[in-house]
Every structure is written in C-alpha cells, then in structure tokens.
Hints:
By secondary structure, the chain is α+β, with helices and mostly antiparallel strands. It has helices at residues 3-11, 18-26, 83-88, 109-118, 121-146, 149-159, 169-176, 180-195, and strands at residues 29-33, 38-40, 48-54, 56-62, 68-75, 79-80, 95-98, 102-108. It is built from eight helices and eight strands.
Amino acid sequence: MSIQKLIDSLQKHINLNRQEQEMLTDFLVLKIIKKKQFFLHEAQIAKEVAFVVSGCLRSYSIDQNGFEHILQFAPTGWWITDMYSFISQQPTHLNIDALMDTEVYLLSRQNQLQLFDKIPKLERYFRIITENSLVGSRQRLIDNLSLTASQRYANFCTTYPTLIHDLPQKLVAAYIGVTPEFLSKLRSGVAKSKKS
C-alpha cells in the first residue's frame, strides 16, 4: 500500500502508533501528477508539500536567458515544495513538475499545522527533514562554487543513486551545471576508470 512508504519514512525519525498513522492519513490527499504536469508554477503560492510515492518531480528556476537551473530532484521517498513559499505564503520563484507519471501525497500548510497540534512528534519529524534539506542545499551551493564538474557528478550519483540511469542526460547536466556533451565525456571517463 502506498501509504506504507510514507509511514516508513516517518518511522526513520519518529514512532507513530496505529491511531496516529490513521489520523495522519486523514489529512493527506493522494494525487497523480502526469509527466510534464506542474505541481507548482513560478509566481504561485506553495500551498502544499508533496511526498513522492512513485515517480520523480524536479524543482527549477528559469533565468532571463531561458536556461533552466535545477535545484532538486524528488524521487520515491522524498518530500518537495518551495519551503520559502510554503512557510511564508509568498509567491514562489520556482517551478516544480513531473519528469514521469508521479504519485504523491499532498499535505497542505493548514493541515500540517493542525497535525502539529494533534501529533506533536510530527513537528519534530518535519524539523529534522527541513534541517537536513537546509544542510544539503548549503553544501550543494558550496560544492557548485568549489568542486570540479567530475566531483559534482560524483555527488549527484551519491545523492540520487536511483536516478543515474533514469533521467535524460540533459537534466543531469543542468543539475551539475555542465553541457550534455561535457557530461557525456565525463561519464565515458568514469566508465573507463572503473574498467581499469
């Protein structure tokens, strides 16, 4: 059952009894986001956070030259939204769309706050994953400033091991900040070094 993936994610940090699990389920909305459909558009307000049950979402911004800058992929078991917009209820600068048909559980900000009152340990869970996300975002920023493209690709493989072969090369290239052609050379170099 798809709710079990979410329960398993929660149980890594907190223990919910059966009654609490059922209460949580009452606050969630199961939704399918079709490939190329948007979960969130730039200038909208992020009213929900999404837990990915299956599939993959990505968040990105588009610069004035029309280039996409991918901030995050959210494969199975990951949460995604624009946290700034979700918490402040201000318009987002990000887009979030589905890279394949994706099944998600949606939790609105209003429902999240109600759950914090009803099940206080959920506040601890969301604090932990928000802190982890903040640390990850900060480290990625530092890595983008200081690491080589090869090191950034290695980090991508560590962060998203399930996506290495599932994503189009142009998306991986956009995430690590290189051209698809350069990424192709990088990958063939990595493959050669593994053989030798």
